[in-house]
Amino acid sequence: MGDNMSILSVRGRGSFDFEVGKNLLSILKKNGIMIENPCAGKGYCGKCKVQILEGLNDDNLQEHRKFLSEEEIKKGIRLSCLYVPKNDISIELIDNEEKVKILDKGYLPDFKIDPLVKKECKKLSYDSLATSSDIEAILKSEKRALPIDIIRKLSDLEEGDIYTLVKYDKEIICIEDGDTTGSLYGFAVDIGTTTIVASLIDLNTGVELDNASSINPQKNYGLDVLSRINYACKEENGTYELSKSVIDCLNGLFEELCINNNISTENIYDITIAANTTMLHLLLGVNPKSLGVNPYRPIFKEGRTYLSEDLDLKISNKTRVYCLPSVSAFIGADITAGAIVSKLNTTKERVLFIDIGTNGEMILSDNGKMIACSCAAGPALEGMNITCGVRAGVGAIEGITIENDSVSIEVIGDKYPNGICGSGILEAISELNRRNLVNKSGRIKKKEDLEDDFLKSIIIEDGKKRSVVLVDDIIITQNDIRQVQLAKGAILSGIISLSNHLNLTAKDIDKVIIAGQFGAHLKVESLVGIGMLPKEFEDKVNYIGNSSKSGAVLCLLDKSKREEVKDVLDNCGYLELSLLDNYEGLFAKCLSFDINKLL
């Protein structure tokens, strides 16, 4: 072994040679060991913790202390992105993966069951030598030349044989022995930046038989889309790695659903996928570099159909895969899916559709006239970049009330709290605002400025730094509040900009639809309480759950919905907020907790 090489031992995972001078996170990645690093190793999320068992050095200790407690430091816990081993080292991985609540349900409007793939059972007969056979009739009816394997299958049939034609968009894609009309299935898939959901659908009845979900494995390459675009562009084989990770995940979900429901993968004929524009590019192995630089143009926007084998999906090679269309780089197929679920293209009302998450996307429809925008809300709303933030899983605080000299908390799973998730941080800050623990600019007040003794007792003052204790060592810092203000400023400024574009006010909006993984956990009171939504919206909000998956279901079961979603693509305008006059000024005003003067 060279002088510049050492050995990394990972408990339970084996030993690996590594080049001294690289950080531990990159060494782990190179050897196929992926750990959570939402910021893609940039050193500002504090999530990539490992425990150093042997070979510990204290270089860069002050940087680690920004994210780790003294107890963790003493135990040898370090952030792998900041830790550079100098010699042989032994470590243990820390299980940071929460059992996350994944939203797999969504509202479905009325629709007809008319899938693109259909089956037709036949009995082969030859009436006479003078009459064309069934086989000849089939060959003549096809507008395209049939694949040779189908012709060979036809030639093997004997008179009286029962067989089933499988047609996709009226074209024969295969022939099956016997009557298989009762076995007609498909998958509807939502690929989110954070989570992936797949539903098994009976295409004859329209019934959702089962669903399966997973954390998007691409999180190991970065929490947000820009981090993943950056990884794809800068790392050798980066696009391939990101694509393979999501394909492997889909294969696992598909296999799980088929096994659990005793269905052969050969009876899966159609898959519809809704996802944001970056996720679609990465799914297909398309380099997303054009999405990360001005003017942010996607390589493709239209809805397209592919063969499953072209995507390396371990499913029948006759299965078709339809990816829904996107409006722009930042308004993806997940939003166009939500648009048809919400009927934004046909509504006779003024409807605002919002998908609140890391990327806050929204469409405002004025009697079918649609305009969309996207605003970078950031990861705070999903519990990231928050001092004690975690995803919405078991042990996460999701609700908070400050009343009667106490802080009452709601914890997912009724377990001991291990942190606070996005809905919890939003509700907590709404409570801080309601109880006047913060001023309108978001600054935590000094103890001396408060009259209530209990409120004074939950404020920690460390010199000029102040924070609020929720329970035990779970706190909200001034920076946490700023992170949420940035998110709420982004969402609110988007709402105001769209309304201004259509010459509407908050009072003019008839209905507000909130969709998505994060939106489902939010309380209207919290959204209004921090000024993310105007007070005029308080009685107009409807939650529709995972509308991305619901839109994929619609396109799977009703072929006309594929034309409808194309109509959204063709008729939805896009408003680039950064190009608007004085948008920066509007955004700055939207950071305040006092927004009445804006609306």
From TrEMBL:
Classification via PROSITE patterns: 2FE2S_FER_2
Protein name: Uncharacterized 2Fe-2 and 4Fe-4S clusters-containing protein, contains DUF4445 domain
InterPro entries: 2Fe-2S_ferredoxin-like_sf, 2Fe-2S_ferredoxin-type, Beta-grasp_dom_sf, Corrinoid_activation_enz, Raco-like_middle, Raco-like_middle_sf, RACo_C
CDD domains reported in the protein's UniProt record: fer2 (cd00207)
Superkingdom, natural source: Bacteria
Domain 2Fe-2S ferredoxin-type: 3-97
MF annotations from Gene Ontology: iron-sulfur cluster binding
